[in-house]
Design a protein that fits this description.
single chain, 13 helices, globular
């Protein structure tokens, strides 16, 4: 692998903050370790690194992303997401197996909420034949982060939302007691309401949603 991840590690280490790392770990419910780099600084450092070294070549992309994903500090998963966002136009269906592994490994809202709408959402919009193979399966999976991923991939589709599929997904998990699933339902409905408020209002009025989902969905419609 020619891509100099060690240079990124060096750059990040120079800006680590132990106190902020401790706060960040607590904020994320002790799920992950942190170097303690604030988001605007991390983004600036990653941008600087990519400007100096370029984006990973396609033939190394999987190895590089998975190497970053395996590092214990959360900032490296965020770096992987930054790289994926910049290179997503080059992703193909052949990349799906390792991309899906990112949803299943070190899963939490901060990675899912980038991967689902920004990476997978982009891929599914441009290659709809992937939808029956992935989100149609995820919505029935026992793993809540796959359920959330299925619900959120259309988050920013606006007029391109497949309303029938979106509402079907929501109804399949409307009974869920999982906070992150209820919240995702409310969030995607609230966002879609910016495009089609009357449809969302009608859907919410005609279907039994958890109070959190309903409250989030109608937040800007009352």
């Amino acid at each position: 692998m020619n891509f100099p991840i060690h240079e990124l590690e060096k750059l990040y280490a120079e800006h680590a903050d132990a106190e902020y790392a401790k706060w960040s770990k607590k904020y994320m419910r002790n799920q992950f370790d942190f170097l303690g780099i604030r988001t605007p600084i991390r983004r600036k450092l990653t941008k600087q690194f990519l400007k100096e070294n370029g984006l990973p070549p396609k033939n190394e992309l999987e190895t590089i992303i998975l190497t970053l994903w395996e590092k214990p500090e959360r900032e490296y998963q965020k770096a992987a997401l930054d790289i994926l966002e910049k290179i997503k136009k080059n992703l193909t269906p052949d990349d799906m197996p390792w991309l899906v592994s990112l949803l299943k490994n070190k899963s939490w809202w901060d990675t899912i909420d980038v991967l689902s709408p920004h990476i997978f959402g982009y891929m599914f919009l441009h290659d709809p034949k992937l939808i029956p193979l992935y989100p149609d399966q995820w919505i029935e999976d026992d793993y809540i982060w796959l359920q959330r991923s299925a619900i959120l991939y259309q988050l920013y589709y606006k007029e391109h939302v497949d309303e029938k599929r979106l509402y079907d997904y929501i109804l399949r998990q409307a009974h869920s007691n999982e906070f992150f699933v209820q919240k995702a339902i409310g969030w995607v409905l609230r966002e879609y309401a910016k495009t089609n408020a009357s449809s969302v209002q009608l859907f919410v009025s005609q279907n039994q949603l958890k109070p959190l989902s309903k409250r989030e969905a109608l937040k800007h419609l009352s």
